[in-house]
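Internal ticket - ligand job 356, fe (ii) ion:
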Amino acid sequence: MPGTTLPPFPDDVRTHPLLIIDYDLIKAGDTEEVNRLWKAATTLGFWYLKNHGVDQEVSDMFDMGAETMALSLEERMKFERGDNGQSFGYKRLGVQATDASGKFVDNIEFINISKDDALAYPQIVHITYPSTVNARMENTIAPFVRKALDMTYVVLKIFDDKLGLPEGTLESLHAMEDLSGCEARCTRSLPRQGKAAAESPSLGPHTDFGSLSFLHNRLGGLQVMPPGHDEWSYVRPIPGHAICNIADALSLFSGGILQSNIHRVVPPPGAQAEYERWSLVFFTRPTSSKVLRALVESSPIIAEAVKKQPGRNFETGCTAAEWLARRVRNRRINNRTGPESWAASRGTEHTDSSRL
Ligand SMILES: O=C(O)CCC(=O)C(=O)O
Ligand SMILES: [Fe+2]
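stdout (structure tokens):
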């Protein structure tokens, strides 16, 4: 993949436009741009981010992914994350359900690297990694993680302000030095055409498990189902633009004001379908011990939002670590007992009963 010329994203498929947010402007506190970010975060919960300044780190991370997937499967399997709900490590192809029926499995493989392991390297906090990851911990992965977190903190500060939370509230729930499920993920999806591709997505519909996702795509394949729609639309990759989205924890902390929207991955459209699809994400997740619940005591705006949605439960009684492990564990096809396993793998999407 690195260095290859890829065919353009086709013009004849349905796409959903996202607002383009300029990172330089939101960092500088530009009121208009901050308001556009707020609009994106509270409607679809997805936006493009330009001028993020992470291009070199992203390119190096894709190289790390390619080097890792070039290891033998036997070598990668030494680091497979297994069925117990552990998220860090390698995930081999075809071990996750993609729908409630359990008939279909995913068509992606990825390597997940913990923020805690990357920043503490060579100290091991959670797990060990393939040699290709270790070789790039300090010069590639840690710089990417730091920049992704810097971006996250800029966005969280804006959300504190808009949500009426005391300054620093959201950042303190995601402190860099505290242990968390934050991780960088590099994904590869091999071309799959015909019946198999049409029957099942490469990655089943889901909301993201943590707080904020920072995604870098070269090829199409990501699809969203915007609120009020019942069909999937592609998100067109734009060179140099990241795709950011709100995930479950921020939706819960904010009493549903921030939107964690459902999405999935299908084979790239048109001529792109013949190519390997690579994507890179940094998932910011809350400190493992934090309980996921609406911050009603800290903000009258959030308290009011919760009051207006009596049918929705914002008291999960669950820590961020438990939430993540439950979702990861119940997607694993080996753990499937029936449709209830799929139900147990869901996040905030099913709070709106029309959603999958
Ligand atoms: O690969 C993509 O475009 C999105 C991946 C994704 O949604 C995820 O890993 O949670
Ligand atoms: Fe996702």
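Auto-summary: The longest helix spans residues 137-163. Residues 185, 187, 203, 208, 215, 217, 222, 263, 265, 279, 281 surround 2-oxoglutaric acid (ligand 1) (CB under 6 Å).
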